[in-house]
Amino acid sequence: xxxxxxxLAFAAALLASLALKFWLxxxxxxxxxxxxxxxxxxxxxxxSAEAHRKAADYTLAKGRLGLVSMAFGTAVLLGWTLLGGLDxxxxxxxxxxxxxxxxxxxxxxxxxxxxxxGALIELPFDWIATFRIEQRFGFNRSTPALFLADLAxxxxxxxxxxxxxxxxxxxxxxxxxGLWWLWAWGAxxxxxxxLMVIYPTVIAPLFNKFEPLADAGLAxxxxxxxxxxxxxxxxxxxxxxxxxxxxxxxxxxxxxAAKRVVFFDTLLSRLTPGEVEAVLAHELGHFKRRHVxxxxxxxxxxxxxxxxxxxxxxxxxxxxAGLGVAPNLSAPNDALALILFMxxxxxxxxxATPLGAQLSRRHEFEADAYACAQADGRDLASALIxxxxxxxxxxxxxPWYARFYYSHxxxxxxxxxxxx
Length: 420
Known about the structure:
By secondary structure, this protein is mostly helical. It has a domain at 1-140 and 307-420. Helix content is 72%, strand content 4%. The protein has a 4-stranded mixed sheet. The longest helix has 34 residues, at 103-136. It is globular and about 70 Å long.
């Protein structure tokens, strides 16, 4: 593999993906701005002009920040790769850590340093999104102290969970020969399944309070729905989502006996019991149609293919040299190969985005149909309108943008399907 070929392919994919992202983002912003002052006919009696304009302005504000973040992120990616930033970081960490602590510690230190620098680079954008955009539109309820506390907790969890996993994967890469990628994939799959079990009871409570659903009438209604659907969960919980945001949501989490249903308190304060039941029926539809298992199978399959590709690339000097790192195949650096792969893959993988989005939208339509069979479709329609309004989701997205990115069907299409 020639280094020049790798450099050219990477640069071409990066520029093409950046151009497509920019074109889609500007189309979306122009389309939303052009329809800012006119509520779509399907929502004329349910969504006010003021709420519609707020959704448009919110979408435009996020879009402008997204354009800046996109350009900055591209510059950072070029800095890490073709301009030699990762090579420089590798040299510094190697000279400081390896002589005293050995090869595995050096590789873990390189992964940690790269992750920490990336998080610091992204921090200003997260701050602006929370305390400027979300604050401006009345959604943010976090404080700087809570934001920093969440950051500290997230860092602690990442260290406690991420470092042992990284150490295991690096050990497997160094000790398992040419088929290391197969064993590493097995470890990664096992870790993700374990995480689905421990997340609801161990990790999530570090960030939010979860209390049993106190509304006895609503709890009985929800339990009856789950019994009709043949779904067993460990409990019904209300999460203090209002602690950080005014956005509402509901979700299932966990695996096996750890499954639980979680409602945001902001959602319960806005929807009627019938609407809550319909939203829950929709979520149950994902399980009954086996969408969760299908998505997990796709993710696990894609990760297996990716690790197999990395297993081949890690032995190619052109892979390193073409991405700005001096190759040294006589002393393999598995952490360096992992980081380079994580940096190089997104520009190529971006072009598969519409395929995943289309599959997700199809699953949403199937879950809606299931909800209509188990609850009142009119309640689901009214709940969706309220959620769009409360979350300031635009009702007039650009069709190309929606087809490429949207994991949920646009509201007009979704309500039309429900009415049928």
